[in-house]
Design goal:
This protein is α/β, with parallel strands linked by helices. 31% of the residues lie in helices and 22% in strands. Helix 1 runs antiparallel to helix 2.
């Protein structure tokens, strides 16, 4: 009937349900007088029909293994809410919680500062004394940043450091990894935050022609003190694709082992290997980069607090927080997330910082009016078996972020469906208007973010299931149905979602 065309389906559904309930009560009490139970059963059946017609189409996903929350942003209307208050593991969508808290507590323009100091003095072209690398935990301090700092030393006329490199690790000290991930030890995504973190602690390998039909492998940073056993063979055929598909590398017994058949088209490409501890990596990078610039320094390494009277020699500032959080969310970078999380906990040892960070994040969320009753934090990255949220809480946070002063910066951190980051090969049909953070753990698959179509919406879908890896395609189909439902088949009955 045309007079119902302007009534929203959920409102109409609610009205019909109330009327049905009244009729059901009437029939029930009438049946008490004449014991006509058939009418009672019929009334219940008729009243339950709207529920089945309006049920969320989960495809092949078991209803008790998924949480869904969808809300229109402009109207605030909740479109879907399925197990939205269930406590679930969010995997890497937890990074959204860390990002929101960092924007609130630090501001989008915050920058980490890494300092190089000395309590010695400069005589001619020599630094008479030790040089202290005061770690700030900057998660994106890289080899170019280090080389820039070393160039600042040379600009002061320093060519020879007569003392030692001293790593100031008063911030955090050594940070451990979460339990239950022993089988992943050594993987780059397991790299823990560190006061003197540099370049994600990975060595980059680049094969080049040696001019006589063979291959030489260059490393970044330079590692002249580490012998390389190079058994690579140059191949004239085949496309390169990814270098790691052709070249293998391992580190054992103090030696770097490299082998494989490398197509000529792979020359100049790069792959990385995680082969040194954070302290070893920082030390070798500093010493060898300094020597590559023509400077001299001993191989000695110390760890100690910089003296209070130490003077600044060089400084490196990170890029703004908003850009760092974009790197974090686009590529689901655990190291960045864990470092940002610890930063929110202030100074101190790693366990104290972690505990204070959890308190700080909870406070930021509660201050914003977000329900944190079911929030469980471990390291803020989602690399955890214990972290918990609810889909509703995640939706509340996304709503607050959308209407915040950092709205655009927050949205820009999210992967664009079908275009970049962890969504580059997924959800291509919805395209650039769909911006979602992904989450992947054993038994967990998650999506959380925004649909930015004509009616912007919050979208949260979290699966906790032993079959989670097999339900990824179903989750993507469900997400497409949630953001683009088919119109009702008539003016009264809500239609099934568009497959």
């Amino acid at each position: 009937d045309s007079k119902f065309q302007d009534i929203d389906a959920p409102d109409l559904f609610f009205t019909v349900t109330i009327l049905c309930f009244i009729i059901m009560l009437y029939v029930f009490f009438r049946s008490l007088n004449n014991m006509n139970w058939k009418k009672t059963v019929a009334a219940w059946y008729l009243c339950l029909m709207p529920f089945s017609a309006y049920a969320l189409n989960l495809g092949n996903i078991p209803p008790d293994e998924i949480s869904v929350y969808v809300q229109e942003l402009d109207s605030g209307k909740v479109i879907e809410s399925h197990r939205a208050d269930a406590s679930v593991n969010p995997a890497s969508t937890m990074k959204l919680v860390t990002a929101f808290s960092a924007f609130e507590a630090l501001g989008k323009d915050y920058r980490w500062t890494t300092e190089f100091k000395t309590n010695g003095h400069i005589e001619g072209d020599s630094l008479e004394g030790d040089i202290y690398w005061v770690g700030s935990g900057d998660p994106v301090f890289d080899q170019d940043g280090l080389k820039d700092a070393l160039q600042q030393l040379q600009n002061k006329g320093i060519r020879h450091i007569k003392g030692s490199l001293v790593l100031d690790r008063h911030l955090w000290g050594t940070v451990g990894n979460p339990p239950d991930f022993e089988s992943d030890a050594g993987s780059p995504f397991m790299t823990a935050p560190d006061p003197n973190m540099l370049a994600y602690k990975v060595v980059w390998l680049r094969p080049e022609s040696d001019g006589s039909g063979g291959i030489t492998v260059e490393t970044s940073p330079p590692l002249p003190d580490i012998p390389i056993e190079n058994k690579t063979v140059l191949s004239n055929s085949g496309k390169c694709g990814a270098l790691q598909n052709h070249m293998r590398a391992s580190y054992s017994g103090g030696k770097l082992h490299i082998g494989g058949k490398v197509p000529e088209s792979c020359l100049g490409e790069e792959m990385h290997i995680n082969m040194l501890s954070s302290i070893e990596f920082a030390h070798k990078s500093f010493v060898n980069q300094w020597r590559a610039l023509g400077g001299t320094i001993s191989d000695d390494l110390k760890t100690a607090h910089a003296p209070s009277n130490a003077k600044m020699l060089a400084v490196s500032h990170s890029k703004p927080l908003s850009e760092i959080l974009t790197d974090m969310n686009k590529h689901s970078n655990n190291l960045i997330a864990r470092s940002v999380f610890l930063k929110l906990g202030g100074n101190g040892d790693s366990e104290t910082a972690r505990r204070k960070a959890a308190q700080a994040v909870s406070l930021e969320l509660a201050t914003a009016g977000i329900d944190t009753e079911n929030l469980v934090l471990e390291n803020g990255s989602g690399l955890s078996r214990s972290e918990r949220v609810t889909a509703h809480m995640m939706g509340q946070m996304l709503e607050k972020a959308y209407f915040s002063p950092f709205k655009q910066e927050f949205i820009d951190t999210l992967p664009i469906a079908g275009q970049d980051g962890t969504l580059k090969k997924r959800l291509k049909q919805p395209g650039s208007r769909l911006r979602l953070k992904t989450g992947t753990l054993k038994n967990v698959r998650a999506l959380a973010g925004y649909w930015l179509g004509n009616k912007p919406m919050i979208v949260v879908v979290i699966i906790n299931s032993e079959r989670a890896d097999k339900l990824l395609g179903e989750m993507d189909k469900l997400t497409e149905r949630l953001i683009a439902p088919a119109p009702p088949s008539d003016g009264l009955t809500p239609g099934a979602a568009n497959p």
